[in-house]
Design goal:
The complex is a heterodimer. In chain A, the strands form four sheets. Chain A has a 15-stranded mixed β-sheet that branches. Among the domains of chain A are: about 50 residues, no CATH class; about 55 residues. In chain A, α1 packs across α3. Chain A has nine helices and 28 strands. In chain A, a hairpin with a 3-residue loop joins β22 and β23. Chain A is α+β, with helices and mostly antiparallel strands. Helices cover about 25% and strands about 35% of the residues of chain A. Chain B starts with a helix and ends with a helix. Chain B is elongated and about 55 Å long. Chain B is built from twelve helices and no strands. Chain B is about 75% helix and about 0% strand. Chain B is an all-alpha fold. Classes of the chains: A alpha+beta, B mainly alpha. Chains A and B meet through α1, α3, α4 and α5 of A and α3, α4, α5, α8 and α9 of B.
Chain lengths: ~450, ~220
């Protein structure tokens, strides 16, 4: 009975173990005496609880405060202030300092010793619209067609033309980083320290103050956002087809082409190309090898000659010295970079005499050396129309206003803003260069900026 | 984050001229920060805030322990003076309420020793005749429901007296649990006893009081 009472009290105080409560509740339902006992206990507990809050007279509080006023004149007060200070430091600040120190140690450990830990920033990437982000070591920076980028480093800067891509590798604290050029045109400005550039299996060593323009034209194919950006560069005819299939779902059959033709390389760059526009540009590019289209088949038409000389090369690297001095090495061979030099995979070609033509795209990006060398060049106020396609030897405007402008043709037939007419004198993946009629001024008209 | 804001608020308190704003900032201070402001900066408003923050709980605990208002006021006053004198023993990471109630508890026990009021006999053995009689007559006069009973002064006085006659550990545990709604874990800290023991003391105290009330006619 006493045990039951103890359980009832525990139940009414909310202290009964959850596993015991259902059994007791069930017994209460079927036991009148237990019910009566519970009712009595409920009343008694309510009475116990009924003791009101006792109100402390304000006078008592005032007495406490009055007594406390004399505290600071007591001898222990000074000692106590010191103890309080010490306790504040030991109990509040010391744990925080320890926690902060531990955090710094852990982060430092993660950065320096964990292979997958966060890599340090090596520079800042700045887009044309002014937006920027921190460049992490070994991160591939890709500039989309029409969207050149600028990378600020502690040692200088790199300008990337649309379609170019680079990585920057840190060589440790207080060491100049190494720039790895993956593809495309870049300007490397070693303004404050000697720099090295790895490109196409070669190493270029630049003295401090050197500004170098590089064009690494190699096999590369990319179709972004359903044709918003199309970059087909030195890619074999056979290798273009998977990209067309993936981006547009277009299937072209090359089984009727001779193997030698399938291996021929094509280059063209476009923006906002739909499936039909892509196929038209592709066939146009391949036509120099005698390729034509009939339905889904690509056929070979014998007797056609190549229009472009170097597209059979796997890659071409061109270096142009804008300022300072640099050496290029490949294996044991070391060569001073002249004003301009080109390398194919197996041989060296010198010849270009106007280095500024290689960086015409960089006019207006804010590099003093580039701008100084390109005083007779302006950047177009407008861009090429969306849907335009640049081939190595021609510019093709989109359907509806389709016109073909041939490189170095005799006619000033390209309408530039302001009612002026221009003659096509240069083609880059990122835009076209026109000579103004009756002037030495040239105008660079970039591709429309559609992706980044 | 919130803790950080409060801390920075404390640092600004002494420099602020506006009384209303100072009071608001003090209300956001922790107990230790208030104690520090008083001891180091002689900020009496900080001490007043500390006292007002804990006056209800400390006084109720003491009053229910000793059962006499005058004695409870004296112990309350002494408790806060001891808080100042013993501030060097307070660890900021401990709960101020727990520490303060421990002081109040020790002073209450000292009081019992001095007044020889510690309970050695069961409350069943020597219930004062007058209160018992008046309560019995009150209860026998009708069939009061619990709300009526709860409102009767006589019953309240009877319960208060019965509480003061509980064994001290049961009384302390009961007061903190039933009247201060303190969690068992915290009571365990104040009393320095295991939670299970504290729970047992509370149940025993309720059982004793309930039997007492039953004998008085509250069934």
């Amino acid at each position: 009975m006493e045990r039951e009472r103890e359980k009832l009290i525990a139940l009414l105080l909310g202290d009964l173990a959850p596993e015991d409560a259902p059994a007791l509740q069930a017994r209460i339902v079927g036991d009148a005496a237990l019910q009566a006992q519970r009712t009595g206990l409920e009343r008694q507990i309510a009475a116990i609880r009924s003791l009101p809050d006792d109100d402390l007279p304000q006078a008592a509080v005032d007495r406490v405060l009055k007594s406390a006023r004399g505290f600071h004149s007591s001898p222990e007060a000074v000692q106590l202030a010191r103890v309080i200070t010490l306790k504040t430091f030991v109990n509040i600040y010391l744990p925080r300092i320890a926690a902060a120190a531990l955090f710094v140690l852990l982060v430092g450990y993660a950065v320096h010793y964990i292979p997958d830990g966060p890599a340090p920033g090596v520079g800042t990437v700045i887009a044309g619209d002014g937006s920027s982000y921190i460049l992490i070591e070994d991160h591939l920076v890709e500039a989309g067609i029409g969207s050149p980028l600028r990378v600020k480093l502690a040692t200088g800067e790199i300008l990337l033309d649309g379609g170019a891509a680079v990585r920057v590798l840190s060589n440790g604290a207080n060491q100049t980083p190494t720039v790895q050029v993956d593809r495309g045109r870049v300007v490397v400005d070693a303004a404050r320290a000697p720099s090295t550039v790895d490109v196409g299996g070669r190493r270029v060593t630049m003295a401090a103050g050197t500004v170098l323009s590089l064009d690494y034209d190699r096999e590369h194919a990319r179709i972004v956002d359903g044709g918003a950006v199309v970059e087909i560069q030195r890619t074999s005819i056979a290798d273009v087809l998977p990209h067309a299939s993936e981006a547009y779902g277009i299937v072209l059959d090359v089984s009727l082409l001779p193997e030698a033709v399938k291996r021929q390389r094509v280059t063209f760059f476009g923006t906002q190309l739909d499936g039909e526009g892509f196929v038209r540009s592709f066939v146009e590019a391949a036509s120099q090898y005698g390729v034509k289209r009939e339905g889904k088949y690509l056929l070979y038409e014998a007797g056609t000659t190549h229009r472009v000389g170097d597209t059979e090369q796997v890659e071409v690297l061109s270096l142009s010295l804008l300022q300072g001095s640099a050496q290029v090495s490949s294996g044991t061979q070391v060569l001073d970079v002249p004003a301009s030099i080109s390398f194919t995979r197996d041989r060296t070609i010198t010849g270009e005499t106007r280095p500024e033509r290689s960086c015409i795209w960089a006019r207006g990006m804010g590099n003093a050396v580039v701008d100084a060398r390109l005083r007779d060049v302006s950047t177009g106020e407008a861009t090429l129309p969306a849907g335009s396609v640049i081939h190595p030897d021609r510019l093709v405007l989109p359907a509806g206003q389709e016109r073909i402008f041939v490189l170095d043709g005799p006619a000033f037939n390209f309408p530039l803003p302001g009612g002026r007419m221009g003659r096509l004198v240069g083609l880059l993946s990122s835009g076209a260069e026109f000579q103004l009629e009756g002037s030495v001024i040239r105008v660079f008209v970039p591709h429309s900026s559609v992706a980044r | 984050m919130a803790r950080r804001k409060v801390h920075s608020a404390t640092e600004r308190v002494p420099r602020l001229a506006d009384k209303g704003e100072t009071a608001k900032l003090l209300l956001n201070c922790t107990d230790f920060e208030l104690l520090k402001l008083f001891v180091k900066n002689e900020d009496h408003a900080a001490f007043e805030t500390l006292v007002n923050r804990h006056r209800r709980q400390v006084y109720n605990f003491v009053y229910k322990m000793v059962g006499k208002a005058e004695a409870a006021e004296d112990i309350f006053q002494e408790t806060f003076l001891r808080v100042l004198k013993n501030a060097h023993t307070y660890t900021p990471r401990a709960k101020f309420t727990t520490w303060c109630l421990q002081i109040a508890r020790n002073l209450s026990l000292d009081y019992f020793k001095r007044e020889s009021l510690r309970q050695h006999a069961s409350i069943d053995a020597g219930t004062p005749g007058n209160e018992d009689h008046s309560m019995a007559s009150l209860l026998r006069s009708g069939d009061p429901d619990s709300s009526d009973i709860a409102q009767s002064k006589e019953l309240i006085d009877a319960v208060r007296l019965a509480v003061t006659r509980l064994p001290e550990n049961q009384r302390e545990a009961l007061v903190l649990r039933m009247y201060e709604d303190m969690p068992y874990a915290e009571i365990s800290e104040v009393l320095g006893s295991p939670e299970g023991t504290v729970k047992y003391w509370v149940h025993e105290a309720v059982n004793t009081l309930a039997r007492h009330l039953e004998r008085m006619g509250l069934k």
